[in-house]
Batch of 2 targets.
Target 1
Amino acid sequence: MRTPIPASAVEDLKPPVSSAGPLGWLRANLFKGPFNSLLTLFILFCLYKMAPPLIRWAFIDSYWFSDADVCRAGDGACWSVVSQNLRFILFGFYPYLLQWRPAMAVLILIGLFFYSRDTGRWNRRLGVVWAAGLVVMGILMHGGVLGLAEVETDQWGGISLTLLLALFGLTAAYPLGVLLALGRRSRLPAIKTVCVIYIELIRGVPLISMLFMASVMFPLFLPEGVTINKILRAQAAIILFTAAYIAEVVRGGLQAIPRGQYEAAESLGLNYSQKMRLIILPQALKIVIPPTVSILISAFKDTSLVVIIGLFDLLKTTQVTLSNPAWIRFSAEAYLFIAVLYFLGCFSMSNFSRHLEKELKA
Amino acid sequence: MTDPTKESPTTAPENEPIIKLIGVHKWFGDFHVLKDINLSVDRGERIVVCGPSGSGKSTMIRCINRLEEHQRGKIIVDNIELTNDIKKIEKIRAEVGMVFQHFNLFPHLTVLENLSLGPIWVRKFPRTVAEQTALYYLEKVHIAEQAHKYPGQLSGGQQQRVAIARSLCMKPKVMLFDEPTSALDPEMVKEVLDAMIELAHEGMTMIVVSHEMGFARSVAHRVLFMDHGQILEENTPDEFFSNPQNERTKLFLSQILH
């Protein structure tokens, strides 16, 4: 005969000590089985051997604000290569006394990014704020109005140039990539063919060769006397290049949307652009946030390739600093410094993408 | 609560059939799915289409709002002939509501946004009016309290009722139902059928692809039996169920009625 189970018998119990708390964590993550324990011990040993000398080099024996001779005499890290050349690394050949202007522009840009982090603020007003911010940044960088001295674009350099190339490169490449993805899935053969050819051609060519074409070949086709700014040409190459990659990622997202969504949108009488804008793209773009951000991050780093056509971005100004015989030995320190700057940029992008994914996950 | 947008001037005379299929053929590749379909549906008429799977029932109603393209014959909806003219197709789609087997709600929008989307963008209603309309129809399908949830948070039956309300918000002249209850758990079939029966009692023109014979018996004016891309038999529900003429109809009915 069956008896009802008394309620007291199924009371909640605490988990055993060995599987919860810090001890449980250690067991589960570091010492689970002999192989795991061995790995943990090995890594601890490596840390013990490597960490102290590294800390000694970077922080204890290091020089922060000395000149080059002092650095060469000691054997710690020479962070002075950064501190003594900081303004050149950050701003390149921008006139020394006017360097507060690019500094302001960079700060405004960072401020705008922080302000835009919250998706609740994404409305028309934010668009206006950004437009105004861009105008102010442009005026600060270029001058020529409001009593600011004019600074030609060939004097721009350093972090402001890197951020400029990245900002416009990424924001223009994204919508262009989306359009290309839609075009590649178009039912009109002409549009489809053009998009396929574009995407495949661009993806088949390294970015370096496109930058060379933009800087060397393209001017040959222009009529005499007409010149297009070098930064603009590099910028265009970066945009066209990145867009092709974004297009393929977005196409993947479009393919993930079930046919029923298209049919439901169509059966309401929505036209093509409404269907895409309101129903399909919001879902497809959300799916492809992780790979899209990957592409944007690598495009951000690829802006450093403009060194080869003689633009003075962050990497080039660092190289120029290191070509000074006094500082030539301290490339590790200098490159570590710009690595940190690039890392901050990339890490905040990937951080933001995770934040965005969470926020859009309804 | 009243419907804030109540008025529907008809473009065709009342006595004209609202849907006419004349000699319609369709192929999927080499496969002949629809063979010489002739059908005329009057305003206010309710038709249930049944038949074995693969018989072309879904394809037929999907041709009516051009989710599928027919290759021969004529389809005239509300006095507009379906051609490749996308403007005309969009106009017809706005007048013809469709409810799908798998609901096809928009998962990234709330229930209320799902419902007000069409009225706002296609009918160009102001947002407040569209939302009032949406709430009116949500109330009609007894689900108004879910207005601010996302489709993923609802049960299948609730989702399908939302889908019905979404179509109704467009003030369609015809409603097409493509197996609306066949993806539902059994205990949810009734709530969806009840909503459809209520709609029928209000005089909506409906074409329903379904095997719910009880529903067919109680609301249909005509029942159609399709097999192999042809309409083999059509009759009033009473005659259709008690006295089927075609051998294949008899076989089919014996299989589904046990």
Target 2
Amino acid sequence: MAVGTTLGGLAATRKGEGARRPLVTAASLKGFAARVVPPLVVLALFLLLWEVLCQRPGAGLPPPSRVLAEAHDIIVDPFYDNGGTDKGLFWHISASLQRVALGFTLAAIAGILLGTLVGQSEWAMRGLDPIFQVLRTIPPLAWLPLSLAAFRDGQPSAIFVIFITSIWPIIINTAVGIRNIPQDYRNVAAVLRLNAFEFFGKVMLPSAAPYIFTGLRIGVGLSWLAIVAAEMLIGGVGIGFFIWDAWNSSHISEIIVALVYVGVIGFVLDRLVAFVGHLVTRGTATA
Amino acid sequence: MSHLTLTSVGISFTRAGRTTEVLRDVDLKIEKGEFVSLIGHSGCGKSTVLNIVAGLLKASTGGVLLDGREVNSPGPERAVVFQNHSLLPWLTVRENVALAVDKVLKAKKSKAERREWIEHNLALVNMTHAAEKRPHEISGGMKQRVGIARALAMEPKVLLMDEPFGALDALTRAHLQDQLMEIHLRLKNTVIMITHDVDEAVLLSDRIVMMTNGPSATIGEVLAVPLTRPRRRLELVEDPTYTHARAEVLEFLYARHAKPALAA
């Protein structure tokens, strides 16, 4: 819902600009202001508080003004590339996103298939569920040494960590979704004599889609959490390494800027998956 | 040889080590084109009979023959109109009918013929105007009409209806009953319908099968309704055959086989 309203608000303002304001009514402006003003006010207060607290001599962290001054270069030019790992934030973020994209896509495919198996078959459920319940509690980074030993390379290891972190909520939510397919839909499929593939594509996936997308949303959030931590350890290009590198060089301001990026990107990823889910389920998630 | 034959059908369910016999010795012969209603108190196993004919449940004893062939799995030649319509909510009205037509008649009809057949069946239940709508956008009566269109579009030998109008208000129900009679007159389908509405049973059926109360429910009595078709509900109100049949069913349900809990 939140996604729908936010996008609705954006669409309204954009249309208004394009058509030279006939569509921007007082009411829509008021609604837009009601959504945008409170977060801006809170943000301003937060920055002010931070500024005041960190201005004192001996403060451990730089105030916002100093962050802006010190990290000026990386803020205004995220695209520089001096070779090696000395690149702009854009390149680091893009490297991290590529790892997440690959790992998360693999997790989505494997997770939906395994979730379907567990949701559909009582035996698969009994056999696999205890193993899943134990494996899913393992912290993402605990997998890293094992995957480094198996793959002998940082890149596939990082992707594996993403995969193994994000697959559990996808499996579990898909299984619940499949389990909750109403008996009526199964009866319809039985009367029509849909074969296993037709049933999977035409009844199971659409019926379980709301659940699947809940799992995907949690999964994408977890993979973004995991990639930053994993990159700190494996090095190379990536936002996690960038943060670790900045810490080693005592560039606290750069860390703060990177964290803002990480937060915003994580938020965008979450909303992106939710939006795709909304499109795919065509708003029938509650039906 | 009858079109559809149920021979000493019985079914028992075992739950937590206890076996309950739900149906015993259900024998019924139905001719082609006949409209048969199953009536009985709730919990008497009407739906179980229908589900066995549909193939969704397996009889523990006895069996069902359709045109001489044993029924042992669900199939489109025994299309079901479910009580709660069971339309797939992510598909439009047309897509719901198309799913059935494209799957069932793939070998029989070309793509263009199938398109035409889908439209034909939507028109049959007067749903052409809402073909692009999704189930949650239309009323309960409309959903049930789409369910009927989907079942009819499979060109079934037998149409099985599980309290198709049970959840509808009286006016919508009367309207759909009229439509169903009209369709039945035109297509001459064999229909088995479950109902607990006495008037509905008498108005629509050629024969009314009255079931005793469970456990171990069976057929108590079969009543023929020798009214000519087409039947018009307003003319029937005073018709002696109609009132007699109605009285017979009421007598069976409320005097001889009153629900124990209600009688007490």
